[in-house]
Amino acid sequence: MKVLLIEDSEALRRGIRVGLDHLGYTVDETGDGSEGLSMALTNQYDFIILDLMLPNVDGISLLKSIRKLGNQAKVIILSAKSQAEDRVNGLLSGADDYLTKPFSFDELQARLITMSRRGELNQQTKTISIANFTLDSSNKSLLVNGQFIDLTKNEFKIVEYLFNNPKQVLNPEQISEAVVGSFNHLSKNTIEAHLSSVRRKAKAVGATLPVKNKRGFGYFVDEKA
How far apart (Å, rounded) are the C-alpha atoms in residues 209 and 199? Predict the structure, then answer.
């Protein structure tokens, strides 16, 4: 997924970028509001991480401008302004989320995951084809070489989440949040057990599931498999 990071603090911007790079996001960045507005309007982004106090064009003006022109990227505001009216103003101006500084990178990551899940819920009818596998979110089916693979609910959700994010290495915490939400938890061993089961089912029909484990980091989809 592609992210535009607009933050005037060079140190904070660098820290966020390093974290996002590590998670597999493609990141463009700037510390200038005017340049950020131009980038947002000339490129397609999945997410925009937006500071409010920016030189040349402030964050709220930038946000209103891109929404007025139909830009549908998910926007999360980063701001030291913590009053309720500030958050309300940001959300009413078109933001999808509002994160108050200081914050942990883990919290920012969780907000991005949550917004990704919202987007997936709005795209449940789409079909995804990777290698010789076809996943249909509308009827919850996985086919390989024209044959259905019978999956459990959690097996399907794990594969669906990985297939929806083919450019990223997803750690067990991200997968658990996407599959069972924040009030339950799937352990790393449970996730691996589910994936091992799917691999066996795929192997039974002569196929190899295009999901690999990057040791110490998480799972990713190998589209060339």
Answer: 6
